[in-house]
Input
Amino acid sequence: MNALKAALAGILIASSQAQNPTEVGALQPGFYRADDARFSFLGRYEAGNPKQPRFAFPGSGFEVRFSGVSLSLAIVSDSDTSALTVVIDHGDPTLKLLRKGEQVVSLATELNDGPHTVEVYKRTEAWQGVVTLLGLQVASGGRLLDPPPLPTRKLMFVGDSVTCGEGVNNNATCTPDPASPSNDAYHGYGMDLGRRLDAQVHLVCYGGRGLVRDYRGLGKSDGVLNAPEFLDLSIPSDEPANRAVWDHKKWIPDGIVVSVGTNDFNLETTVPLNGDAFVDEYLKFLKSLRGQYPNATVFATEGAIVTDPLLRRYVQDAVGRAQDSRILWVPATHYPGNGCNGHPTREQHHRIADDLEPVLRKALTW
Output
């Protein structure tokens, strides 16, 4: 990859169109590489090479403060299906579509001379692509400022496509719209709760995956990652060579919401789960979380999609067997999506956050 070489050579800001990223090209003053200390990183990411941090999980990204009238992002995407959410000065979020390869994306234009805060989040899931940050271009006369302080509270959400924000932007007929991806982690219940509770958020989630098997019935023996496996990764991939391990000591959550099991139950009517074995594995997973995060409060819930009471019972059984006062079962309300897709809508994600907020506030004394 010649991305870093191109970034160090500088970047050419040839367009201010949000949906038309330009090529990385000629030298410009005011370029800040991704390893600059004024980047404040968000979510779970991989930084084996600090000059090229990589982002796979939705909700991962960075925040900066800068003075100046415009800001552009130099980035590499390994697919045509990744997208970003950008928030300027805590205003309304905007969508930035990415294409495969190196590119420059305009984040903000025609601002007053500052200072400004910019948040950039990966909007889409890990399986849709991984993005690599090269740096930022500040317009002539501007500069990066010291980063804003991050919240001290920390929440982690472990789950599947619902936790990742899949379906949040589904249209009335659930037809794919390349200009408006259905994925939207920013408006999912996890990031919604982070904003309400003034907490940093890590979304550790993967669409279609479960606790012991994915929606197709595949598990670890098939080379398929499920929650116990992708929990330990910063770059989750079914291809071992593409994975990156996460160091759990880098970021310690106060609270962990676990919402897995929906995809395990996808084949329940034709290939039923062994209930005892599933509860055993769920208990093992809860104990692994306790081992990694001994002071965290864990909230286990069955999620918004499955209505089979067996899943609720299995989760309750695992929590009861844990015999841990800081591992709690939280009942989930079923939210049916919009009729053509069972993933909860944006409004329903807001209601999931409504359901969880008082529980988290009470247990965490927030």
Summary: The CA atoms of residues 65 and 117 lie 4 Å apart.
